[in-house]
Batch of 3 targets.
Target 1
Amino acid sequence: MRLAALCAVFMLMSPFSAFAQECDYGIEILVDGDEFESQDFKWRMRAMKIEGKSTNITGTAEIESGGNTVKSYKPWTSDSIAKQKTSNEYSPNLKPGDYEIIAEISVECDDTNKDNNVDKKEITIKGEAEKTDETKSSNNKKTEPIKAEEQDAEKTSLQSTIPKRNAASEPKIQQSSTNPKSAEEFDNVIELKAQNNNKAKETQAITSNTIQNTQNGVVYESSNERARGWIMVFLLTLSILLNIVLIWKR
């Protein structure tokens, strides 16, 4: 009875001991290069046993671009693996751009090194977008000289028209350029002219007054002289009369 009980316990524990057995499996992304044309890009993933016994494996993979998942794969789901296992070849036909492939596995044993359970690979897909960019750049290079020639032609036409316009307005421009005056200078000139005009008016008034005064003075002097003459005559006559009276009294 004891032997039968021990056998039963051993049989019950054997699956758990197998499940808890230590192992080490890794994953690897198989791709030839870093840059591809869209139609030429192909890849695979391979899981391999590094140490331990056979077990079951589950594998998944994703292709991401800018943090977004573009493609997803699941080649194995609890599939048995003895030494290694390789997925089918994938041709995702990606658009031009930068991508990252992320492959991951999980095993049904005690994996002692889980760092190699994930593999990443960055790739670049070349295609029509880059070719169109190249053609655009080449077209831009071709159009740049044409634009430069057009600009030169416009400059020459403008230069040819500018002298004609300047010829008509050349005297005015020369006058303004020879006598550049600011607003303040014009105001000063106007004030000086006004002052000169006032001075001229004053001088005219003074001269006219002096002429009138001189004329009046001449008239005044001639009347005084006449009065003096009459006074002298009056005095002479008075003295004569006095002398006559005195002589008569004697």
Target 2
Amino acid sequence: MYSRGLFKIYKVADLEVVALRGLDLEIEQGEIVAIVGASGSGKTTLLNTLAGYDTPSAGQAWVGQRNLLEMKARDAVHYRREEVGFIWQQPSRNLLPYLNAQENVELPLLLLNRSRSERQSRSTELLELVGLGDRLKHRPEMLSGGEQQRVAIAVSLANKPPLLLADEPTGELDTQTASDILEVFKDVNQEYGTTIVMVTHDLDVIREIPRVVTIKDGKTSLELVHIPSFRKGEDDVSREFVLVDGSGRLQIPQEYLNQLNIRQRVYVEFQDNKVVVWPEDHSYE
């Protein structure tokens, strides 16, 4: 998945709301990435754009070989059905209440005219993967919130999409259930190599995701990478990076700006293989 200078502008009556402001982001096949940020920062807009629900206004946005800016309506239907899976925050929103777990998973396959035997085999495989092999015939009302979300994951994977998107998938779950759901995502990633991108505010989830990207004011600003340690007794290392966009611009963290009283202009020099930034009123003496 690749985006460069991505813009999304919503028009409401005579108003224009800019949700994405030149966002740059690259995600490799098989990664698990968390997207975080304040309300209104553009997280959900990015997810909806990647899912094919929203059309970008400008810039570049690619998922695999699919150019999202040039995608026609018919292509978007095919894309959403076969190339990307999506999970909503509310477990009940992902499922049809009058179908049991297996029937919910089979529905996307039915829409693509898959055979009965293929539907049953695939749905059983997925429900066993998410730990619900003994709940195939249970309707959503008979399942807990965590179990419903497990079924939703299975539904989203029915057509073997290479990309899975999740909008606050643990937002309505208790801590232990949220942890269990995260393990399901990891199992899916390891079993199928599925790329997983999730929006979350859950700190426990964020600590377990290897790559966390922060969106601020419609642009990517920071990236936290967890580097596992393979030495016995040593903790994993986390490093926070400031992101540089396609034009060479970077967003200095707000706390640094405040501490140095940086406003509009700074001195920038290259020293000893480092880029050094000074506030405008810095003294060289």
Target 3
Amino acid sequence: MTDFSLRAARIQLGALLAALALAIVIALGITTGAFVLSFAVQRDLARQALIPEHLTWIFPAIVDSAILGATIAIVIISKLNMNKRDRGFYIALAVSVVVISILGNAYHAYHAAIAAQESIDGGGDLGFIPLAPAIAAAIAIIPPALVLAFTHGITILVKAVGMAYAAYRAIVESATDSEDATSIASDLTVGRGPIRVPQPREKIAHNIAEQEDDDLDVDAKAVDAKAGNEDAFADFAEPVFVDETMNDLDEILDPQDAATEFPDRRAVEEAQADTDADIDDLMAFIARSNLAKNVKDTAVRKLTNPNLTWETIALESKPPVATSTAWRRYEKFDAAAREAGFDSPPLPDLRAAENPMRSELATV
């Protein structure tokens, strides 16, 4: 179903892009034709307004340039998160200049039709029958009105393309996150090795054992040296040195102290195996649960490596999120898992003192 949704979103995005391109081409044609007609009409109006002949082109250039600039601004602003007043300014500007063009075209066509009718009534021959003044005015306002209509239509298409692209990206990211979470969960379920963190007592035992080995090596070398000089001091050196060394080793390697000081390795490994089995059950619970994909991904990351900080999990998320967001996602999983019967261990207890609380996350 994910592949079908992805394919459908891709087709929808492509169709909207094609429609937008076609609408832009049509709008350019309409705008060009409207500018040409409007330029001729408004230049004639400027001449009738007694503007000098060599300056009459300035008036239609101003009006048509304002229409073009306002149209481009509206299309650009439609995809930006701007103040409504700023966006409303360009919309009002575009409507105003288009209305000026419409009124100019209607006025010019109306009076031109009246003049043509008077010429015919006076016996003149125009070679055609002029339209009624009202009909001529209505026809003259069609090009600038279509410019305004297509400007609004292109704005709507741009927004639709943006929404389709956002939906397409959401499906792609959701599919990617789902594949990552599924692969991680399956890898952990099939071939997960035990994760052991050395306890402080084990580290102490390891360091003491290394120290004893070093002492034994030094003592062995000293005994060999004594044996090499057996003829010189066989009567007193070797017995005393060996006896003292063995006494020291007996004091260090007391079997009773070692048995009481260090935990049984087998018991630790059995406890770790039980923990691994519980984590496998948690992974199976995540795979079949109805939790969101990002919640599952956060839970898998934290259970896979409990030492990961919330900041690291937030940065490794796709896309990266705030630290508090990563913690809240895990909190949703925590509540669902505890409701299903899981408890700590192995589930990390978010209520423990070592875990960041809400106030700390808010501060971060």
